[in-house]
């Protein structure tokens, strides 16, 4: 069965002056799929994510969400169509409490709830990510994992059609990593469609259905996790020629 | 609408203060009324300014432009249209200008916005001067009404109350929540689906409209209006100084700055009429340098410290 893709990226390109950060990258993400976007540092993964979320506009190529083009739209339009994301360096809203942080996702995004409805959803999601009872805690004083949880809850609050996680597991210690991985695993089982940019290979192996590997701005491999990670070109991109 | 008991209490207290302020012309018709009109004018201007500049942290120096347009809306048509209509026109004209300026500049970062608004106020003043010289032979306009100082005082008081109610309503709305998110992190704001440019433009237009209305209310007080007085750049600067002195985090913050500053300025300009600008300049430096968060900021800091000490003491006792 081939379901229509939720997201299809068709020959996306992003140039910064003479530097081509993303070059002719194409891939599809199916409904309910968890796609890993991996590659060495500087290979253009985060830029690719920024093109999808609208933080950057592609120089060429097309990105479509549910069959409708979103490439070139402003970030807030893309968010309202159902794409939400977390950030590589965690971004919480320090002057709001945890509840307010999550409500921000619910109020303006894909679902646009307001008042009690948004507040109830925020509480449900805080509980969902493991922050029950911390609704009114000052977020600046939270631990790193809690801030990451909060960001995830905010991204989920809009009930996104596509969730983008930009190195959401980075910087967690081993026990936090376990919690993080099982949290994403639960989301996958709920049927969320997710793209995760990640360096933590264990997480990629455990979680992803498929992965896309980028190197120097181009896609060098795509497919099931096990075969992709043993692909000789992928190994060369990560480890250099001698080890391939 | 469901109000919390806290909101009801603040609302009642505010209504009581406004009612008390409204009785002032019954006690004095001379000096105290005159200075109270000044205080009320800057109370309206500074809170309207803070409506936009508080949450966005954009410093607007276009106050004089909106104020002047409001004054001129009355001056140009006072003999042809009823006064309330002119107040409406003043609000519309000022809001339109704010919308144009916002669309052109609010996508840029703060510094450019400050410079642009300062330039804009001057441009509007020069345009009005030029148009008057070209199309009429007079330098100014006469505004004769049967309005007295106390009428103006009451209208400005009503305007200030309206600004507060509007600010409160915005804070409870999606727009207010959006502004809070934008003030925290604009990148996050965009990615949760907030049209940040639109939110800022709408707020700037609301703020500009209120400043325009303040200009329209002040017009009868001048009797004779001409560009140097109606578009006086000093208005823009004074509004910024007083608002910063009071503090812009809360909508009532500027009031704390307006009342003492207007009184001190009145004394200074009476005693040392030639050195007023120097005093204003020094005051500006001192405020920005010593109390960047304003008097209300200082109060909140002190309260936070006091509370921290209280809890520390409480913990020691418990231990």
From TrEMBL, chain A:
Gene3D superfamilies recorded for this chain? P-loop containing nucleotide triphosphate hydrolases
What's in the keyword line of the UniProt record? ATP-binding, Nucleotide-binding, Transport
For this protein, the record's InterPro entries field holds: AAA+_ATPase (IPR003593), ABC_AA/LPS_Transport (IPR051120), ABC_transporter-like_ATP-bd (IPR003439), P-loop_NTPase (IPR027417)
Q: Name one GO cellular component term.
A: plasma membrane
* Transmembrane intervals: none
Which segments constitute the ABC transporter domain? 7-241
Single Gene Ontology MF annotation: ATP binding
- Cross-referenced SMART domains: AAA
A Pfam family that this protein carries is ABC_tran
SUPFAM superfamilies found in the cross-reference section: P-loop containing nucleoside triphosphate hydrolases
The protein here is known as ABC transporter ATP-binding protein
- Its source organism is Neoaquamicrobium microcysteis
Automatic annotation (TrEMBL), chain B:
Arranged from A to Z, the UniProt key words for this protein are: Cell membrane, Membrane, Transmembrane, Transmembrane helix
Keyword Transmembrane attributed: yes
Q: Name one GO molecular function term.
A: branched-chain amino acid transmembrane transporter activity
Classification via InterPro entries:
ABC_transp_permease (IPR001851), LivM-like (IPR043428)
Q: How does it sit in the membrane?
A: Multi-pass membrane protein
Organism lineage string:
Bacteria, Pseudomonadati, Pseudomonadota, Alphaproteobacteria, Hyphomicrobiales
Q: Which PANTHER family match?
A: HIGH-AFFINITY BRANCHED-CHAIN AMINO ACID TRANSPORT PROTEIN BRAE (PTHR30482:SF10), HIGH-AFFINITY BRANCHED-CHAIN AMINO ACID TRANSPORT SYSTEM PERMEASE (PTHR30482)
Q: Which source organism does the UniProt entry give?
A: Neoaquamicrobium microcysteis
TM region positions:
31-52, 59-78, 84-104, 111-131, 151-170, 201-224, 230-248, 255-272, 278-299
Fetch the CDD domains from UniProt. Answer: TM_PBP1_LivM_like
| UniProt main location, coarse | membrane
Location in the cell:
Cell membrane
- Any single GO CC term annotated in Swiss-Prot or TrEMBL for this entry: plasma membrane
Q: Name one Pfam family in it.
A: BPD_transp_2
| Name of the protein this chain belongs to | Branched-chain amino acid ABC transporter permease
